[in-house]
Amino acid sequence: MQVEINQPILAKNDELAASNRALLAEKKVFALDVLASPGSGKTSTILATIEALRDEFNIAVIEGDIASSVDSEKIKAQGIAAVQINTGGACHLESDMIRRAYDVLDLDNLDLIIIENVGNLVCPTDFDLGENAKIMILSVPEGDDKPLKYPGVFQAAEAIILNKVDTMPVFNFDRDAFYGAVGDLNPAAPVFEISATKNQGVEAWAEWLADRIRAIQ
Predict the structure, then answer these.
(1) What is the DSSP string of 105-159?
(2) Is the pLDDT of residue 4 over 50?
(3) Which helix (H) or strand (E) is 191 found in, with range?
(4) Is the pLDDT of residue 152 over 90?
(5) Quick one: DSSP state of residue 170?
(6) 11 HSE (CA, 13 A, CB side)
(7) Pairing relation of β-strands 133-139 and 81-86?
(8) What share of the chain is helix, strand, coil (3-state, %, to 5)?
(9) DSSP state, 160?
């Protein structure tokens, strides 16, 4: 006899995600799930986003990692509340982990929660966290072929950030091929070209996010 475990696990996760979504709707807090590979610049993009939006919105961050608290310490150093989740080997965050993080955050005084998911382009796409939107970050050094290799994450994202565009001259990145593949997979998703560490292109991305946050307030 064969037992499929994925369906019960996902069903339970989705039930808890719905509860998370209801809680955020009640509190009028926008949750953003950030998906990307290790080394794509997730944390630097989050820091640049915080800098662009912190004058208007109260922000907190949930950091998901297999181990360590390196990234959450970087966030806290900027005066932003951060909750660290260590998955102990799991390649993604789940809705029950997120709920426990919400329980230690002051939701009544927040507008935006940025969830930095575990660095992975496969597993996190299957798990609803109760977020308002998923976005994904690809860095130029990773290559223009990633939409072809990992179509699911590009299809799940409501916006796509192409980071480290200042390195474009150094790498053999085919911009036309990248945009063609993204357009085939997810024509509705805007693509924002940025260099997070140089604060290049961040304003347009931040304004897109700000519009989404304002829409639920």
Answers:
(1) S-GGG-SEEEEE--S-SSGGGG---S-SEEEEEEEGGG-TTHHHH-HHHHHH-SE
(2) no
(3) strand 191-193
(4) yes
(5) T
(6) 5
(7) unpaired
(8) 45, 20, 35
(9) E
176 CB burial (10 A radius; 0-12, 13-18, 19+): exposed
Beta carbons within 8 Å of 184's beta carbon, 6+ residues apart: none
In the block, residue with structure tokens 């997070």: 196
Each residue's pLDDT tens digit, 13-29? 899 999 999 999 999 99
Q: Which two tokens stand for residue 132?
A: 């308002």
Task: Give helix 42-53 / helix 202-215 axis angle, nearest 10°.
Answer: 70
Please tell me the predicted confidence (pLDDT) of residue 118.
87
Count CB atoms within 10 A of the CB of residue 201. Answer: 19
How far is Cα 157 from Cα 21, in angstroms, rounded to an integer?
18
Cα angle 169, 172, 176; round to 5: 95
Q: How confident is the model at residue 71 (pLDDT cuts 50, 70, 90)?
A: confident
